[in-house]
Fold each of these.
Amino acid sequence: MLEIVLTREDANSESALLSEWLADDRAAVKKGHVVCVVETSKASVEIEAPADGILVHLVGEGVEVELGTTIAVVAKSEAEAATAGERKAAAPTPVEDGHRNVTRKAAALAAEHGIDLATIAKSGFVTEADVEAAIRAREPERLQLDPLLAGISTENVTLPATFDLDPAEGALAPEFLAELRADPAAFGALSSEERCERYRAAGAVVGDGVVLGRGTVIVAPRLVLGDGVRIEDGGRVTCAEVFAVGPLTRFGHSLQLSCRRAFVGSGVYAGVKLVIGGGGHRDPWATFVMGDDVYLGDEAYVNVARPVLIGAEAFVTMRSLLVTHNIGHSPLEGFENRFAGIVVEDRAQVGLGAIVYAGCRIGREAIVGSGSYVVSDVPAGMLALGVPARVAGPASREVPRSRQAELVRRWLHELHETLLLWDVPVERLEAGDGLEVGGDRGAGRVLFVESLRGGGVEPGAGETVVLTLDAGDAAPDGVVVFDLLARRAHGHDGGVLADSVREFCRKRGVRFRPGPWRYAGGLL
Amino acid sequence: MSAQVRCVQALNAGLHELFEQRDDVYLLGEDLLDPYGGAFKVSAGLSTRWPDRVLPTPISEPSILGIAAGFALRGYRPIVEIMFGDFIALGYDQIVNGIAKFREMYDEQVTVPLVVRTPMGGRRGYGPTHSQSLEKLLMGVPGIVVVAASECHDLGGMLADAVLDDRPVFFIENKLMYGRPQRRPVDGWVDEFRVVEGEGPWPALTFSGNDFGRATATLVTYGGMLPLALEAATQLVLEEELFTEVVALGRLLPLDLEPVLGSLARTGRLVTVEEGTLTAGVGAEIAARVQEAAWDDLRAPVKRVAARDGIIPSARTLEDEMLPGVDDVVAAVAELAGLRR
């Protein structure tokens, strides 16, 4: 068996075109017969059979062949020819004229929705819009008649207890509601206690210690305010269906809150001059949810034409804007204009003055840098920065145990300094990491014990407050244990020193369960 | 595979047809005789069928062009094959001071209906003097017509229109185009692109990836750069869903501006795409005319994609550095669209 290899025919070409076979595949050829013609850019070359035998084509006509390629063999027998023929599969085949007609976006959407692209009969490019049409054709338009969350996933969003209220709870008597609507100013002029009493008498659930600042009026067919809720002066709340707030939540002065329904968790801190609502607040989907222990900074603006979900322990800081729709020109003319909900998952942080655009989801423990403009989802645990915001890296880093312990020791040192500056008599303990606090209130000890699994902490005179990185299974009786990593408080039910230490930790980002808890004053 | 007609075959068939139809058509040039059939095989078979009308010449472009001009002045329809477009420079005096001027100098008593066919373009490693795109040297010569063939044009028809025209027509081919399949629009489509073909001889082709819907920019190109421009347009659609229109000019001189203005009115942005060097190039002329004619339609400055102002190296890899590629076109559109890449 002899191979016919394409060799260099002129100085310029690295390949040649096999333009024509003059002898058929499997034809008997004689040595010296011209079997094919190849063309380089400058020459047309006839190629002869190198021996007598059976010609086996390995490359088809019209194929550009690299130099050195075996284009055919001359076999001595039929069996040899059959074997040689199998090589054809491995030989170069003409490049199919590209049928790359599906855009990246279309392919991704089709994969997401299980659309077989072969079913999209269309000339030209297949775009996202074509796949969307195929999705619509497959699933006849379903009406979204559950407006509460409008189909938005609550994954990684811990909803507050108020979200699951009995629908009858807190329903206000219609005539009282009518009176409120008719003359809110007169109602707002009553004292806080009087207003709370009137709400209770009309059917609202208003917990103990609720404070409604001067002029604050809440107009909502259902009203539930947990114990110790505080809405400072000049608040105005208008909810077409329900306003439910968990215990110990606090809204700063000049609150403007309007939406169909607001479910606010416990221990929420919401700053001053908030505007929650906007033009679309009467839309059926205008649901506002804030989980437990959310921080909503001063002058934040949240427009709620579609659901806005803020997960537990999330931070939406000063002057942030969360907008569920924009005002502008028509999308039919190609302008961006949409209505879509916003989700800030549990423990996520939105930096100062950041803007989150409609439809975006800030993942769990993600951070949006100050001044950023978020126009796409931020994955969980990531830091996004810039205008428009782009993922810049992870939002947090691993802290080794030794470093954690060092940080707590530093905090203890800081607590020592702080107490001294507040004129509280305090000294370092001679043995171990700890402070001895004197004085007439809150006297006792604050200890740092890296792990409590070995035991060894006994109650002493006054309060005993233990900071630890690992509380183990059971905290010792008679002491208050703050487990800094599990973020759990054990045995804390008041106590001036324990309250002060808890507040000290809160300011450093460690908030303990169970909650809600609010610092009522102490040594700091 | 063999069903696919390559551009060289389409041109060759066009020549055969012209020779069949007309006795006054002659072919002059170097190495035309069979079996060689011209350096790029465009002339294959002609000398066998019409030995008296295929005239192989010495290696002297001034002579070839001068003799052809004489044929034309005497009422024949000669076709000249200049082996490489670069060699136009050798015959430039005949073109500039003769062929282009005879008609006016002799008070329109004569015409010079000759056709000069020649391939431009690089990317074959032919080096500095066999790879250039010198259309700009012809565009600056009043009195001639410059036509640019692309793989999507009706090559045989364009050639026939050139032969039938009473003006001297320079018919620019492209070396890489020869071996590529001819891709004429079928029912108004070339691959994923809707194509509109203009009227008259040497029409422009306008391609749209979204049936002339909203598009970001117009790419205006010609000849051998068309497949690169279409590839760039394809990549922009597939990667970004960014649509462009591509105008493949058929006639560079007199410049066929209408299809460019028509497309620009829809897209608002223009990128010129040519293989010749940037300075004083085809794109420069188009940009100048467009801003005069359609300032209000321009939403951004015209961008030019062209070869660097340098000498084309022989090494293939260095040649690619010098010549404009698909990525350059994509980058130009992305910049106009404000995409960060």
Amino acid sequence: MATLNMVVNGDPVTVEVTPDTLLVDVLRNQLGLIGTKVGCGEGECGACTVLVDGKAVVSCLYPALKAEGRQVLTIEGLSKGGELDIIQQAFIERAAAQCGFCTPGFIMAVKALLLENPRPAPQEIEAALAGNLCRCTGYYQIKEAVELAVQRLNAQGGQP
Amino acid sequence: MTVQAVGESVERLDILTKVQGQRKYPQDFSMPGMLHAVVVWAANPHARIWRIDTAAARQVPGVVAVLTHEDVPVNEYGINEYDQPVLAGDTVRWMGDRVAVVVAETLPAAQEGRDRVQVEYEPLPVVTDPVAAMAPGATLVQAGRGTNVLKHIRVRHGDIEQGFAAADVIIEGRYHTPFVEHAYLQPEAALGYIDEQGRITLIVAAQWPHDDIRQIAHALALSEDQVREIVPAVGGAFGGREDISLQILVALAVQHTRRPVKMVWTREESIRGHGKRHPFTMRHRWGATREGKLTAVEIEAILDAGAYASSSIPVLQNAVSFLAGPYAVPNASLDGYAVLTNNAVTMAMRGFGSTQPPVGYELQMDKLAEALHMDPVELRMRNLLAEGSMAVTGNRMPAGTAVRETLRAAAEAAGWRQVGGAWQRPELESPASSCRKRGLGVACAYKNVGYSFGFPDRSTASVELNLDASGAIALATVRCAAVDVGQGSQTALAQIAAQTLGIDVDRVRVAMIDTAAMPSAGSSSASRHTFMSGQAVLRACREALSKRDAALRQETGVARVAASAVYEGREARHTSPYDPETGQCEPHISYTYGTQIALVDVDVETGEVDVIRLYAATDVGRAINPQMCFGQVAGGVHMGVGYALMEEFVQRDGLIKTASFRDYQIPTIADMPRELISTLVEAPDPNGPFGATGLGETPTLPTAPAILNAIHDATGVWISELPATPERVWKALHLSS
């Protein structure tokens, strides 16, 4: 057992883990943050995407101990004060979720994209989301939601 | 007060919690003191089991129980017939058979126990080719049946000899479609426990929870009221959750240990453990006159049913009724066979036997158009079914037969024009690169809404109205066991309720599905809930309104009224089984239609197919929620594109070669048509609520044949076997004589 200290959604967290513990298991099983989903367990589907120090990672492959001292952001952290993130609001308005199992992973992948590049071109949106699988929507409404979020973000002139 | 709820793109009831990550799926539930269970899978696709040794597994610290066939009270299940063992005892017949369940205090202990269960097998000959499996003397998959042919259905309509004699041209073709994986993103999971009334209760994703409890109760030798299913959010289904997956295993573990038990399948287990879409091998022979009128159609279709019956007979029934396409065919001879093999069990998947036939009938149509030098839209227009036309099953097509409207809408969107009374295609621009060739392809398709061939279809719903002091409706709660697997049916039902009650949608709640709290509404399949459950909700709401009005007339000060209703499909149309000799019958309650036109570029150097634009015209009867309708069309096209170009569940000698998402690839955002131009065709179904018909399946059906026809239009080669991978297209371009 080893002690892991990290900051999750703004709160300092200390948990006991083994060297082979994965970040997704800490989030879901030890911290109760069930918004992060496991769709494949091998980094192919992106449902488990979270941000570590602002970068998107697939938490089903990410060793928990690697998060030592880092900032982890999950879907639960996006609307922490009760106010929706601009991306979440856009997903609602464009009906960009059907079964919803892939949705948190998509939203976190978009979050990472917009943190790095607040004005992505359509091809950059596609490239950033090509690692996230959705079986329900055909992706068009997801793409529209991202475009709406980008438009609003830039109208505000702010960072995501 | 005028309220407009139907026809508006209202916000999905469940979307706020979905974008917040708060909506719970079965794997998100836990209980104090719960045990973890894992499956010991068959290690061979076909083998005798001589011995199952669980002693070493039981000694693993933390292992509480190792359950085998000896622990199952009635060791059989199946959606259509009880031919699958819950836990295999003497024979395994596919890689998805389960041999034991290990239950332990922790997941690692359960997994270690699983690895220590020893099973001694004697391999048996593996049956993988359904055509060979039909031959006399073939190894039997299920010895007790005496044959591998699960079912043969024949249709004899008109006079086939005369039909071919009257033909000026005869077109033949052979087509093959692959096994397809549902690939819903949420792997199978369940939490089981004993509830406060002593019922074995499962929190699980299901498409027909009441049918699940029928099968669970049967296997556990319990009555149905001793078993309960609660269905929280479901992470996609597409037919793949219509059969039992892990429900009986978890219920058995709860029955045995009397403790809460959780089981979560990995992606590999999901791909291994649930069935697939049926592969079809189809042989077509069509005759037509010089003017393009069909005179005769002869088709044989062989379906690989896999190791157990599952839904193969109903899928075959459906398929045969659609084999000749949405065309008026005066003379037809159709034969369909469902054949057992040691391949994966095949089951319901989006289309239920209507997805494979268009790969045959729509390529036949384009081959015929080419032979007659006729425009493919014009040829179809001359043959399409209309209200009152006779189908190959001898029935007359009902009001709302809108296939012609979908073809017209798609063709006009894609640039077709009527010139001198005949449809004429648009000119295409040449692609920028010289190694690319561009083509346009058309495909029409149709399928049933609701259950068919005399199988009774009924849905039930109840509504409870909370009234304010003035008697106005403050809140309406709808209870209906129609599972929302992601398609948005609960939102559509809430819109139907709101419209009927004359209130805003935000005053309607839809209760979570619990078999202990509501009767069956039938399955989330056959594109049926908007139609069937929509009617049940509409009627329950009307009944509640009249109760409210009666109560108000008496000034009773009543604050709550409730009503329930049943809707039976036979109110719309009585259906009947196939006549065993002629196949003539009244097959379906209702139909729905779609046409798609694909604009593709084919790279002749690499064989890659790039879908530039897809025009989709879809019959919805009435769009209850246009934004959600678009979502169904787009999702259907996604599966159609995967079917056309990428997806194939591969097995060799019964062993799985595409065991994970690394090997079984579904389209990503970058694989979709660059543009999707969707038209919703609103030709009311007189029996649907507010004229609505089903939508969940049709958008998948025309995509693949439209793309195959476009590949031919671009390059001149026919791809008759799905998927049209770059390798297959390249070979057709460069190696064909």
